[in-house]
Amino acid sequence: MSEPGDRSVITDSLGVSAAVGLYGISFGAIATSSGLSIWQACALSLFVFTGASQFAFVGVIGAGGAPMTGALTAVLLGSRNMFYGIALAPRLQLGRGQRAAAAHLVIDESTAMAITRDTRRQARLGFFWTGLGVFTLWNLATLAGAVAGETIGDPRTYGLDAAVGAAFLGLLWPRLQSWNGRVVALAGAAVATGLIPVTAAGAPIIIGGAVAVGLGLLWRSGPPATDPAA
Hints:
Elements: H1 6-21, H2 24-33, H3 38-47, H4 51-62, H5 67-78, H6 80-92, H7 96-102, H8 108-115, H9 120-152, H10 163-172, H11 179-195, H12 203-219
Helix pairs in contact: 1-9, 2-3, 2-4, 2-9, 3-9, 4-5, 4-10, 5-12, 6-8, 8-9, 11-12
């Protein structure tokens, strides 16, 4: 039985999915123009499915860094999803098998659409409609962007070597709504920038990201109270 407001939750989720999912075109184009094949770009979106980590990986690769360095950077940035999961668990209250399946959909947007709901039912609606919507559109958009990016060639010819940083900033900017978030971002950026002249490509992002994660853990608030059952 539906609740009042269910349709609004679904409508909002679909709107967020469209806005975020289509951004995968940028990732696909940047990935292939930075040296990845179409299928490698698509595999990243299919199996990694976290935009910041994906952009960080291709940024390291595009800068000449080792793939392992890029992978470590991506894992570090993706670690925030673990804390999202901790906050979501008492709200969604899924079974063990459901949790395993839902883990891949834990991203910024699906988390935001779930934790702002008043009931467990609507939290689940927001989480799954947003998560599945973004996943579907992000992967389709990645394929479209990857095909286009492969025809572009050397990204430096068109100034696309700067697109990774711009795209990453575009993902980061909406998250800087709190004073704590701004301090964490500035501290991580300052450390990374200072290390660029003295470390290998990719290392500044890893170390700066580690500093940001450490500060974030110090300031992270506890998980929200359990929602009432639907």
